Give the backbone structure.
Amino acid sequence: MIKVEKLTKRFGGFTAVDGIDFEVQKGEIVGFLGPNGAGKSTTMRMLSGFLPPTSGRAEVAGFDVFADSLHAREHIGYMPENVPLYTDMRVSEFLRYRAALKGIPGRRLTERVGDVLELCGLKDVEKKLIGNLSKGYRQRVGLADAMSHEPDLLILDEPTIGLDPNQIRLVRDLIRNLRRHHTILLSTHILPEVEMLCSRVIIINKGRIEALDTPQNLRAHLGQAGYILFDAVVSDARTAASTLRTLESVQSVSHRADGDWTVFTIHAAPGMDPRESLSVSLEQVFAEVTGAEEN
């Protein structure tokens, strides 16, 4: 479905993506994992045809993304990190407008908008103004837009960015259900997210691919040093850290702010391995601390 060869992007003297190679097979969900600034979004913009490369090539569904962009884009649904939505439009109105721009004919357009509203859990809010929706619902609108023309490939750039763990869980379940009909390339910097969704993971850092492996193998490598890193959105980081310290497998916990996120560094107790439980523990901690629900 995706074939990338020596793909490179430079901005002046800065190399954002440095000669990467990888393939994604039809029906896979592949995680694209890396820290902020690693080159994830730049790669996805190139794969979606929105940003020309400096060199190298990429194919989607057998079409060269740059030499045959129009045909390639027919097979691509792209959800950028910051979804561009018209906040003064109603959900169904926006999706109809976007579907018309993509050339979906009238009768099929109405049917397809109804389908994506149902698939993305938007039927209850289809008459609401987008500007009045929660962040979680706005992300679902962006995903519905990406799906409206029935693409073979969905490219999702940080689809859960800025969401609390309750909202993340809902979007994650939605993505999991889409795997039956779509190949998915999913960008994130959250390891538990790719563990739960992806069959393979690409790790990119400083524009270069550092590893391509299964989540299980990746997890084992990351845990060898006895330290685990997790990102989460919590209203009270100190309380969350205190709760994590009560786990038998945890020796110590430190944390620091990273924008809206809190990065927790967890040191495993001697002879213990907390990796099996911690990805769930942070969501449980959030629920206990905030009791938040999406609305």
